[in-house]
Fold this protein.
Amino acid sequence: QVQLVESGGGLVQAGDSLRLSCAASGRTFSSYVMGWFRQAPGKEREFVTAINWSGSSAYHADSVKGRFTISRDNARNTAYLQMNSLKPEDTAVYYCAADVADLFLVRIASNQDEYDYWGQGTQVTVSS
């Protein structure tokens, strides 16, 4: 089984940067697709970004493309989300997730129901 623990959330001003971390334990990390999702108050959870097992390919939602970057360090069993130029509309609970079985296809990686393990979420609040 896989346990995911997130950290790095907080309160920032619009235009600031923030880096979230997702530390994995329990099973081999390197073969998993890793994704980030977010859920704003009153909204459904939505896809943010995902990265393949080797870190050679990534997908991004249009709303964050050019501002957010996903990365991973398999030696440290950790995935990251670097968030730049933050906007108030980025305010949400951010969730890290791991997909054990699937190939890295955008239609799979962007669907939350395809993921096998989830972190507890970390709050990101961006003020004007």
Q: What stands out?
A: The mean pLDDT is 95. Helices lie at 106-109. The two ends are 40 Å apart (CA to CA). Residues 106-109 form the longest helix (4 residues).
